[in-house]
Amino acid sequence: MKTSGRNRLPGTVTEVKIEGLMAQIGMKVGENHVVALISAEAARELKLKVGDRATALIKATSVMIVKE
Questions:
Q1: What is the pLDDT of residue 61?
Q2: Residue partners of 45: CB distance under 8 A and separation at least 6
Q3: pLDDT at 25 over 80
Q4: 16, 48 in Cβ contact below 8 A?
Q5: CB neighbours of 38 closer than 8 A, spacing ≥ 6?
Q6: For residue 65, what pLDDT is reported?
Q7: CA pair distance 4, 47, nearest whole angstrom
Q8: C-alpha to C-alpha distance for 10 and 31, rounded to whole angstroms
Q9: Tens-digit pLDDT profile for residues 3-18
Q10: For residues 16 and 56, what is the distance between their CA atoms, to the nearest angstrom?
């Protein structure tokens, strides 16, 4: 599969919650946790389940950076 997205975060699915039209997918990416909201249809089509290896593709109009 080819994509133009460059912000790729490979990780492991830790959570799949499907409710109505939406699904909440949690992923462990290194020492970090990423949560994505996708359509329930997409989650079912991808057959996502806890333990699956997957990649989060990030495309945003803005990214916030915080420094303590």
A1: 76
A2: none
A3: yes
A4: yes
A5: 22, 23, 25
A6: 83
A7: 23
A8: 12
A9: 877 889 999 999 999 9
A10: 14
